[in-house]
Amino acid sequence: MLLISSMDKMWISFVSMGCMFLAMVFMFFVKTKFSNKLWKLIFGIIAYILLFVGFISMLYIIFNPTKA
């Protein structure tokens, strides 16, 4: 198991929250602003990938111990 410092966990959590925020913004644009189906598909796929990356990195932060 890879032990990381508390500061590294903090930065990873900021990145995962940023990914989730970007996913929310992209899904807002997909649902309300875009009318072209190709753009909806592209931004929808990007949003779900960002949401998945944010979720997995947050799970990594929650369930991994830190260096003492």
From TrEMBL:
Record organism: Psychrobacillus insolitus
Transmembrane segments: 12-30, 42-63
Top-level division of the source organism's lineage: Bacteria
Pfam family membership, one: DUF2768
Keyword terms: Membrane, Transmembrane, Transmembrane helix
Source taxonomy: Bacteria, Bacillati, Bacillota, Bacilli, Bacillales
UniProt-recorded name of the protein: Uncharacterized protein DUF2768
